[in-house]
Design a protein that fits this description.
The complex is a heterodimer of chains A (140) and B (122).
Chain A: E1 4-12, H1 18-34, E2 38-54, E3 57-69, H2 73-84, E4 88-95, H3 97-116, H4 133-139
Antiparallel strand pairs in A: 1-3, 1-4, 2-3
Chain B: H1 60-63, H2 74-77, H3 90-93, H4 97-112
The chains are: A alpha+beta (140), B mainly alpha (122).
């Protein structure tokens, strides 16, 4: 199966000491590799004010991770660990590979069109390109 | 005369146009929420009864040529929310249909991880 990418964000209690947060991160990394996934990137966003109260807290320590895996077991395990960890008050996993793919596609598309336009703008067939306001403008 | 179908706007069925510039959506509805200054693409306030220029609103994401709206950047999404946390409609912001679709998804994700409010707290 093809590889999937996920964004994983979790929020720790703001009073958690830094070593504890590092511990959570390293357990997640271990769990991911054990299940055959990989954590590509870890970013500590630090203490941020949350938009609403979570467990009566107004602030939280945000940690962002980029996870790669070929099956959903990894995410399941990571979420289980986050649920168990006392310091973690909220987490969110979002699958992003499909959106990245779409982004790539649109980008390629645009570059192709940009490369073609200066020479012969009239030859571009309207049906070959995706919809969008800018496209209509380019045709006129 | 005071409602949204003033002579300048072509026809009431226009708001479905892909660029979403045709209709302004009642800037001065009596019971509606107050206009905010931070609203993206909002035109200048109406002066007299019929002397006003409608500024053409353009989709901000089309201008930036963005292919992906990142839910992690709350500061980008925030202007598309009302004070109380509602997502602003397309007719207010001028966002094109495709980007509005992406935008709502991004806003909802951001809400889930407490980057944006579901509803403003009292």
């Amino acid at each position: 199966m093809e590889e999937r990418q996920y964004d994983l964000i979790f929020i720790c209690r703001p009073d958690t000491p830094e070593p504890d947060i590092d511990k959570v991160i390293s357990t997640l990394e271990h769990a991911a590799t054990e299940k055959g996934g990989k954590i590509e990137k870890t970013e500590k966003w630090g203490r941020k004010r949350m938009a609403y109260r979570v467990q009566r807290l107004r602030e939280g320590y945000y940690v962002f991770m980029l996870v790669r895996s070929s099956h959903g077991e990894v995410v399941k395990e990571l979420e289980r660990r986050l649920k168990v960890a006392d310091a973690v008050i909220k987490y969110l996993t979002v699958r992003i590979d499909e959106e990245l793919k779409r982004q790539e596609k649109l980008k390629r598309h645009r570059e192709k069109r940009a490369a073609r336009r200066p020479r012969k703008p009239a030859t571009a067939p309207a049906a070959a390109m995706g919809a969008g306001g800018e496209h209509a403008a380019a045709q006129s | 005369m005071a409602d949204e179908n003033t002579p300048q706007s072509p026809a009431p069925q226009a708001p479905a146009a892909p660029t979403g510039i045709a209709s302004h959506g009642a800037p001065q509805r009596p019971g509606g929420p107050p206009m905010q200054g931070s609203r993206p693409g909002g035109g200048p306030p109406r002066r007299g009864k019929r002397s006003f220029v409608r500024k053409k609103k353009v989709c901000r994401f089309c201008v930036d040529k963005s292919d992906y709206i990142d839910y992690k950047k709350a500061e980008i999404l925030a202007p598309f929310l009302q004070e109380r946390g509602k997502i602003l409609p397309r007719r207010m912001t001028g966002t094109c249909a495709r980007h509005q679709r992406w935008l709502t998804v991004a806003i909802k994700r951001a809400q889930n991880i407490a980057l944006l409010p579901f509803a403003a707290e009292l």
